Each structure stands twice: as C-alpha cells, then as structure tokens.
Amino acid sequence: MSDVQKELHQLREKVAEIANDETKNENISRLKKEQTAYKSEALRLLGESDDCRKSIRSLVRQTYALGTAY
To answer: What pLDDT is attached to residue 69?
Structure first.
C-alpha cells in the first residue's frame, strides 16, 4: 500500500512539473509577443518624436529669421 502511495505522490509531482513547464512556456510566449508589440510601439514613437523635433527646429529657424527681419 505504501508503494502505491509513493508512486501516486511521484506521479502527482510529475504532473505538477509538466503543468508548470507548460505554464512557463505559455508565459514566455506571451511575454515575447508583448516585447515585440512594445518594441514596435517604441520605434513608432521614436519616429514621431524625430518628426516633432524637425518641426520645432524649422519653427525656431523661422522665428529667428522673422526676428532678424525687423
């Protein structure tokens, strides 16, 4: 009887280990997808901020040009 209980305990531990591995793999997969999404969003925002900086520089140049004209 104790042999059966030991085997049952070992099998339960093995099942829990397999379930943990599957959960871990699912979490890794989800995190990789999130990483990709965040990376693409960061690149989009970087491009947008570069465009804003260019616009600001252009407006500053125009402001100085108008200031020196008067």
So the answer is: 64
Q: How far is CA 46 from CA 51, 54, 55, 61, 68, in A?
A: 9, 12, 14, 23, 33
- What is the rounded distance in angstroms from the CA atom of residue 11 to the CA atom of residue 34? 35
Phi and psi of 13, rounded to 5°?
-65, -40
Q: What is the pLDDT of residues 14-66, one digit of tens each?
A: 888 888 888 889 999 999 999 999 999 999 999 999 999 999 999 999 999 98
Rounded CA separation 25/19 (Å): 10
Cβ-in-10-Å burial (0-12, 13-18, 19+) of 1 comes to exposed
Cα distances from 18 to residues 3, 7, 8, 15, 26, in angstroms, run 22, 16, 15, 5, 12
